Amino acid sequence: MKWIIPAAVFVLMVSVGMGLRPREVVAQLRRMQWQHWVGLVLATFIVPAALALLLGRVLPLQRAEMAGLFFVGAAPGAPLMTRNIAKRGFDMHLAAGYQVWGGLLTPIILPLVVLVAGLLHGLTIWIPPRVILLPIAENQFLPLLLGLALARFLPAFSAKAVRWFNRIGNIVLTVGIIALLWFMREALKGLLTWWLPLGAILLALGSVLAIDLLVRSDDPLVKHTLAICNANRHVGLAVLLSGQYLRAKGTLPAIAAYAVIAPFVIGALSRWFRKQESAA
Hints:
Elements: H1 4-19, H2 22-31, H3 34-58, H4 63-74, H5 81-87, H6 92-120, H7 129-153, H8 155-183, H9 185-188, H10 195-214, H11 220-231, H12 235-245, H13 251-279
Helix pairs in contact: 1-7, 1-8, 2-6, 3-4, 3-6, 3-10, 4-12, 4-13, 5-6, 6-7, 6-11, 7-8, 10-11, 10-13, 11-13, 12-13
């Protein structure tokens, strides 16, 4: 089980790389102005983490549950973010550029966010950047580069293989997630409360709203793409960091709640955004 889900994610990320055009990714990044990048830093790294801490104050959550939501809010850029954006009809190349940008900044900004939040609660938590960079490189950069290399040097093979990579990866990932939830049922039993799904919903909506408020763009497709990307938080990284550096048993249910609830929120918002774009 330890290797099934990472293997499926790796295969799916390779397929994403096969479908990307590097020039288009660079062109999308060049269209962004400096004020867009400032707004993105705040909306991606600061607002979701701060919102999670605020939810811990407003909702009747245990401290460990608040910490679980906080690590989700502090960890942007789920590995399959670009692929999910493509499936929902948004700008895949903008999402890929945003994911690479976020992946490069996460090892720098996330440790500082965690350090400040810990000091506010009387704790000193320092996460070495290399601890964050390694899983990001393994889960995102390496398979993306491999997919781009295959598309560049073996275009005929990539055109045929990308569909099978998607199918195999989807099947293995679905089976792996179901099996993981089954094995975790005893650990999660009795720890989940109704407040955790509510907190997960509010955190996902807050991540979307942060893009709308802080990133100014006249192109609805740009804002909608970035908003959906921002709601795709990196729950795998949140589990890793909370387990390594906090060692609080109650963090896992909060992270699991976001992993289950967020796709439904993202799906509903995607349909709403598409209706808005059609009407416009």
